[in-house]
Amino acid sequence: MPSLASFRSGKPAAYPDQSVYAAYACAECGLSYHDLDGGTGLVFRVTGPGGSLAFGAGRCAWYPQNSATAATLASDKYFTNRVLEAAGVPTLGGNYYFLHDRYRARRPDGHERADALAAFRAMGETAFVKPLTGSRGDFAEMIDSEAALQHYLAEVARYYDAILVQPVVAGREIRIFLMDGEIIYGAEKYSPAIVGDGIHSLRDLLIAHNAALRSRGLSPVGLAGHPVSVLQPVLPSGQRWPIAGRMNWSAGGTMVLDTALSDTVAQLARQATAALGLRVAAVDLFTDIAADGPASRVIEVNANPSIRMLEQSGRDHLILKIWRHTFAALGLLTR
């Protein structure tokens, strides 16, 4: 059978990951893969003994074995927290606030911009803020002044309708990927970093890093909070300068597979997916939290998680396992 690397090398650079993996899994499972969009991979059809079904890449649901209701609940971070807390699963809490007057008559009081500012002051003017329905770490930032929050609200309002404001929590960040309650992998997440080349200043490297983020549709790293004295020096070749905040893979973060998951985090992950009714999901958690309350808490639940990390970690067999589950759940496989 051709390797996953050969499937990747035979596709354009912009060909979606999920489409590469679907074609790879079809070859392994004896199914037919048909690109329906002239070679872009954005829409494709899989056909087998059990039938035929169209799939979409990009922002489409990658795991159709999840119900639309469960996936939609998980996409809203506030809804997710309410469902999990009702099931006894500890979360980071927080509240939601709207950024526009549209639909003002259809929502309860206490969730407007002025309320967000009041809540921020009550939290000591330090909070972690992110779009209510955002993904891939877009606009997920720690805010430490009212002026910074006002600037953030003006910027994020160009792209989103609402935000979630939460207390700042520190701990080890873990991702657990599950299918029908089975843990397929666990990984520890680490912050992205700028790597010096011995030629360019840190500021120049950050500008290039931000250009790459924007090209992928993600918010840039703010430069205003860093004094010139910090950004001007040239980093020695290979030296890393960590970027605090979001740890998402798409934003430059890294994940390292971790096979020594505690029973506590494994159980929380299972409880979270069961509470939301998800068959396939990635649960992000903080563990070893040095604060009052539970030492492990769910950050969010992703019903559409990327699995690029498995390819880059050489875990092609896990990619096949995930896609076999999808094909079997949809009746495309008869064995």
Overall description:
This protein is α+β, with helices and mostly antiparallel strands and 335 residues long. Among the domains are: 4-62 and 313-329, no CATH class; 93-168, Dna Ligase, domain 1 (2-Layer Sandwich); 193-242, no CATH class. The protein is 33% helix and 22% strand. It has a five-stranded antiparallel β-sheet, with helices on both faces. A four-stranded antiparallel β-sheet has the order 4-7-5-6, with helices on one face. Strands 1-2-3 form a three-stranded antiparallel β-sheet, with helices on one face. Strand 2 and strand 3 form a beta hairpin. The protein is globular, with a radius of gyration of 21 Å.
Distance N terminus to C terminus? Answer: 19 Å
Structural class: alpha+beta
Q: Could you give the order of the helices and strands?
A: HHEEEHHEHEEHEEEEHHEEHEEHH
How large a portion of the residues is in β-strands, by DSSP E?
15-25%
Biggest sheet record: 5 strands, antiparallel
Mean pLDDT rating:
88
Query: Which regions are unreliable across 5 or more consecutive residues at pLDDT < 50?
Result: none
Major beta sheet, strand line-up: 12-9-8-13-14
